[in-house]
Write a structure and sequence with these properties.
heterodimer, A: about 325 residues, alpha+beta, Immunoglobulin-like, four-stranded antiparallel sheet, three-stranded mixed sheet, B: about 325 residues, alpha/beta, Rossmann fold, Helicase, Ruva Protein, domain 3, two-stranded antiparallel sheet, 14 helices, globular
């Protein structure tokens, strides 16, 4: 018991000693007022004029510096118009934090430059150190007008921030990539749309669907009617004439005028479909299937060849005549 | 082969046989008429479908010659009636004549009693004469005194309108125009046709006399075959679609025509379109009608039944323009 107790006491004492040591370690001096320099230009200006106020803080580079509580704004003689902060590594290894502020000065007479607080935060050690700076330098603010004034004095233009030239290359690259991506997407969308709206593809899909429906009990006459509609829709979409509003004879004239290579076989199918639709001809299911297959081949060949260049491809149809005195 | 198919096949054979008179008549007509094939076809259609024709064309296009030769070749009685502003209904249908010997009135039939009537320049006579003729066309009989007399069969009126002279004319009201199955525009002949017309007309020898090559019974048999021609429901619906589109163009994606058409075709147009389509199929020796038959005669059946509005007239649009638009928008079955 005593041995265990003594071990516990030793460990506790060691822990307290280490903690105490860490607390009692003196903090490094982070900032000194001499590390902070202040400059302002011009030293005299007209009321409302702009003053360039530069605060520079030198440090060892392990700290994060910020300027706070700059005495500007309501109740102050100075108004902050804009500011920019940068950090730069110097040759001796130290780092210079620089805040370039633009102040508008109001109120007449000599005024000390506005005070501020520099805050330093060491990245490796918790805690923050602040140092309050009251600049001794001053500016003289003069009246905008006086009795000798004969012309309006222009307001001093705002100090423009230098253009960040480093951004040009990435921005150009990004724009280029955006254009490339847009072009590729557009090409893809157009190709997809064309693929989906392709009359050959659509017609073949529908013809196959009719074949499947025939197997499920669709009447061959209905199959022929659907075949006629699919072929006319295909002609309308593929060759751009109103085949849906045309009778077979008109379609024949159009196909002849355009010298479309599949016209004879196509017309045989349409004429046969006309007989089924208008002469109450009753085809058998096998004939209907054959016609659907022929139509699929015709549609496929029309999709491959451009109109008006090749002769009749010689597809033949196996089907009975109309038998109604045509 | 189904019964329907067998019936249509048999009907097709009958039509092929019974339509032979068409070729004989055409042969006869070709000896005196050059060209005008379309007009002749329409006359055949009107005869087969038991309708009447309104012919419109400038003078000198052989309208009278066509009708006269047609009637002679078909062995039908023919009367030409020149309508004038001083004409009375009695001049057309006849009147009761007093016989002093028997001291009785007896009817004297007018020129309307014939198989084929050419009512020349029908728009030159006043409305009451026009009405008398149109009533005869509708009823197929006329009443003289107290007695009604049936008109001969076949009975066909071919009326002409002169579109050039409008002064002193009485345009047919729309309700009366509607009784004509078709309004056919007689066009000028082609260059070659006119050359032949000129050469034939300048010959000093009189042209050969037209002889009758058809018996009226052949016409009646043909009419009965026309009645039996098969018209599928799809074709019938297509006909009604076309006629309905003249009344409600917006239902067929022709909203712009709504303000252009004052009124569309009547149900009589559907009836005549069906009958004329069947007759056209007969001319093609077919036992069934197709949308092709409908399209072939739709202009002639509808052009006088569709009235353009003032707005359309201001834009020089005619009934034919509307019909063309409708044909381009109504889907063929």
């Amino acid at each position: 018991m005593n041995g265990r107790y003594s071990w516990f006491r030793i460990v506790t004492l060691l822990t307290v000693a280490i903690w105490g040591a860490s607390l009692s370690k003196p903090a490094e001096a982070v900032l000194r007022p001499s590390d902070v320099t202040v400059s302002a230009a011009p030293d005299s200006l007209l009321a409302g004029g702009r003053l360039r106020y530069v605060i520079a803080v030198r440090h060892d580079g392990r700290k994060t510096i910020s300027v706070e509580a700059l005495e500007t704004g309501p109740g102050s003689l100075f108004e902050l118009a804009g500011s920019k902060s940068t950090s730069k590594k110097l040759q001796d290894g130290s780092v210079e934090f620089r805040m370039d502020a633009e102040l508008a000065a109001f109120g007449l007479g000599r005024h000390p430059l506005p005070g501020f607080t520099v805050s330093a935060r060491d990245r490796s050690v918790a805690g923050e150190e602040k140092i309050e700076i009251k600049p001794t330098a001053s500016v003289v603010v003069m009246n905008m007008t006086d009795s000798t004034m004969t012309e309006l004095r222009p307001i001093v233009p705002a100090v423009s921030a230098p253009f960040p030239s480093w951004i040009i290359l990435p921005a150009a690259a990004a724009i280029f990539l955006l254009f490339v991506a847009g072009y590729v997407i557009r090409r893809f969308v157009v190709a997809l749309r064309r693929h989906l709206a392709d009359p050959v593809r659509a017609a073949r899909k529908k013809l196959r669907s009719i074949s499947r429906q025939l197997s499920k009990g669709m009447l061959p006459a209905a199959g022929y009617e659907a075949l006629s509609n699919i072929l006319r829709e295909f002609l309308q979409n593929r060759y751009g004439f109103g085949a849906m509003e045309m009778v077979t004879q008109e379609i024949a004239k159009e196909l002849a005028a355009r010298r479309i290579n599949i016209r004879e076989s196509l017309l045989q199918l349409l004429v046969r479909a006309d007989l089924v639709k208008f002469a109450d001809s009753r085809p058998d299911i096998e004939e209907c299937r054959r016609s659907l297959k022929v139509a699929e081949v015709l549609v496929g060949s029309a999709g491959e060849a451009e109109p008006g260049v090749t002769p009749e491809d010689g597809e033949s149809l196996a089907g009975p005549g109309d038998g109604t005195g045509t | 082969m189904t019964k329907q198919e067998t019936d249509l096949e048999a009907l097709g054979r009958e039509i092929a046989q019974e339509s032979a008179f068409l070729d004989r008549t055409r042969d006869v007509l070709s000896t005196t008429i050059i060209g005008q094939k379309r007009v002749i076809d329409r006359v055949f259609i009107a005869l087969l479908a038991n309708g009447h024709l309104l012919l419109e064309g400038v003078p000198g296009l052989a309208k009278t010659l066509i009708v006269r030769t047609f009637a002679t070749a078909m062995n039908l009685t023919f009367h030409r009636i020149q309508f004038t502003p001083d004409m009375l209904p009695a001049d057309l249908i006849g009147t009761m004549i007093y016989n002093p010997k028997t001291m009785e009135f007896h009817p004297r039939k007018g020129p309307v009693f014939a198989n084929v009537i050419l009512a020349d320049e029908i728009n030159r006579s006043p409305a009451k004469v026009q009405s008398a003729l149109l009533e005869a066309m509708q009823e197929k009989q006329v009443t003289i005194g107290d007695v009604s007399f049936p008109l001969g069969e076949p009975f066909m009126v071919l009326a002409t309108q002169n579109p050039v002279e409008h002064e002193g004319t009485y345009m047919l009201p729309e309700a009366q125009l509607d009784r004509f199955m078709m309004k056919v525009i007689v066009e000028y002949p082609t260059f070659e046709e006119e050359l032949e017309v000129m050469q034939r007309a300048s010959a000093l020898q009189a042209s050969s006399e037209v002889t009758a090559v058809v018996e009226p019974e052949e016409v009646f048999r043909a009419r009965s075959l026309v009645d039996r021609i098969y018209v599928d429901q799809r074709v019938q619906r297509y006909i009604v679609d076309l006629v309905t589109a003249t009344r409600f163009p917006d239902r067929y994606g022709l909203g712009e025509l709504s303000s252009m058409i004052e009124y569309g075709a009547s149900p009589r147009a559907s009836i005549f379109l069906l009958l004329a389509s069947k007759a056209h199929a007969f001319l093609q020796r077919r036992a069934y009608a197709t949308p092709e038959d409908v399209k072939s005669i739709v202009y002639d059946v509808l052009r006088h039944r569709v009235r353009p509005s003032y707005e359309a007239e201001a834009e020089s649009m005619k009934a034919e323009d509307f019909i063309r638009s409708i044909l381009e928008h109504v889907q063929v079955p």
